[in-house]
Specification:
Keywords: Aminopeptidase, Hydrolase, Manganese, Protease. By secondary structure, this protein is an alpha/beta fold. Helices cover 32% and strands 20% of the residues. The chain is built from 15 helices and 19 strands.
């Protein structure tokens, strides 16, 4: 990958360095508009009124001074508007004048951590194939904010977005492995890889079956870091492109399939947060990296595959391949009995139908873990929604001819039955959660440009102290 560097330095996604003069960015709500205008010098107040500034969400008014722009007003609307806007500050970033800015007059119902995170995330640009001008305004880190943590979160999100945004022509299983090696080198982690026919020799038959038809051979990437603390294993779906296999997707459904390795991209972003902040955790990251391609040796509908766990799986749809490669990786992870196992995958369209692109579901039988994740998701502007491992649906994934069915007929409860399928491969690990993410922002929003996006990683990171206690 000589033309692009993952984890490249991005000054626009970091705080301004200490020292030097900064301008004030006043956050003005509908309730505080009159008082803020009264507090301004008369000339600036008159200018703001003449511009029609009314404190609506995202409204920006640059205030003049003797040497150009002296300060600015950013509208954050009323309480209802603020509840709908995840990153209120991000709207202003590309519009502000060059230089350092400091926040002032923050409404009490706006979280300072989320405000600053939104600013940093607004600096992201994907520049592998086309250049664009970065924002020139930089934020002074306010007191009480963990600068190192926020910058690690922003850098992790940039890594995740870069990986997802890169098309399969440059993000094959080979390239995904190379990206993991770059991350490992950054943090002095260890990486081992089992690839090609060695997958069969070392008992990963379903990873091999799904990926054997591709030009870039299937592989299981295994990253380890840390030698003290509780054990955390992250498993991420690394389907670098999904044609659907012999159950070929229609063209409209194939267009976004470069993002089918979004689970892998997200766990790598989460791993970066953990390693960058020096968390006392024994971390393991497992990524089954494949391309679900079409060739004479593609696995077929009706095939029965043997898994690492020993369970047999009837293939009723080759387009339900993600759960197959994850199953072998989860079985390996389960053999170590980590204190916590997290699985992340762009797994089902059913999850999008239920909750839309912005709200990923997660599954766990552990109520305290679920509560910690939900609370952390709210605090980190990284929303999640718990869904049930609904036991009455277990029969839907039992075809009779084999132990499990990879694609139950009927079309209902697709996200739940996929989660139940994965749970069958985690029998010895006490705490387990599965995330069915989308990994894509379908339309640009503040701090979230259209394209690849991380989901759930910040929430998991923030919940780890409680989840691993």
């Amino acid at each position: 990958m000589p033309d692009f560097e993952f984890l490249a330095a991005r000054p626009e996604m970091r705080f301004a360095e200490a020292g030097g003069a900064s301008r004030l960015l006043h956050l003005v709500s509908s309730d505080t508009l009159a008082a803020r205008l009264d507090a301004l010098p008369k000339a600036q107040a008159a200018f703001a009124k003449a511009q029609g500034f009314g404190a609506g969400a995202g409204a920006l008014c640059l205030l003049p001074g003797p040497e150009g722009v002296a300060a600015a007003l950013l509208g954050v609307g009323d309480a209802q508007a603020r509840s709908r806007d995840r990153f209120a500050l991000a709207k202003a970033v590309p519009l502000l004048a060059e230089g350092a800015w400091a926040l002032a007059d923050i409404p009490p119902d706006l979280d300072l951590h989320a405000l600053c995170l939104g600013w940093l995330l607004a600096g992201y640009r994907f520049e592998r194939y086309a250049k664009s001008a970065p924002p020139k305004a930089r934020l002074v880190c306010p007191e009480g904010v963990d600068r190192a943590q926020l910058e690690a979160m922003a850098e992790a999100e940039a890594l995740t977005r870069d990986l997802i945004n890169t098309p399969a022509s440059d993000m094959s299983p080979d390239a995904l492995e190379a990206a993991v090696h770059l991350l490992a080198k950054r943090h002095e982690a260890q990486v081992s890889v089992i690839a090609g026919e060695d997958l069969l020799a070392q008992n990963f038959p379903m990873i091999h079956a799904v990926g054997r038809a591709a030009a870039s051979v299937p592989r299981l990437i295994d990253l380890r870091w840390g030698d003290a603390g509780p054990a955390l294993t992250l498993v991420g779906k690394g389907v670098c492109f999904d044609t659907g296999g012999l159950n070929l997707k229609p063209g409209a459904s194939m267009g976004l399939m470069k993002k089918d390795m979004g689970g892998a991209a997200t766990v790598l972003g989460l791993a970066h947060m953990i390693m960058q902040t020096g968390a006392k955790i024994r971390l393991r990251v497992l990524i089954p990296a494949v391309e679900n391609a079409v060739a004479g040796n593609s696995f077929r509908p009706g095939d029965i595959l043997r898994s690492r766990k020993g369970l047999s799986v009837e293939v009723n749809n080759t387009d339900a391949e993600g759960r197959l490669v994850l199953a072998d990786a989860l079985a390996l992870a389960d053999e170590d009995k980590p204190d916590l196992m997290i699985c992340m995958a762009t797994l089902t369209g059913a999850a999008r139908v239920a909750l839309g692109p912005d709200l990923p579901p997660f599954y766990t039988d552990d109520d305290p873990l679920a509560q910690a994740l939900m609370q952390a998701g709210t605090a980190q502007a990284d929303p999640l929604w718990r869904m049930p491992f609904w036991a009455p649906y277990e029969s839907k994934i039992e075809p009779g001819i084999a132990d499990l069915d990879n694609a139950p007929s009927g079309g209902m409860a697709g996200s739940i039955t996929a989660a139940l399928f994965l749970r069958r491969f985690v029998t010895d690990t006490a705490r387990f959660a599965h995330f069915d993410i989308y990994g894509w922002q379908p339309a640009s929003a503040p701090a979230r440009p259209k394209g690849g996006v991380g989901q759930g990683a910040r929430a998991i990171f923030a919940a780890l102290p409680e989840a691993l206690a």
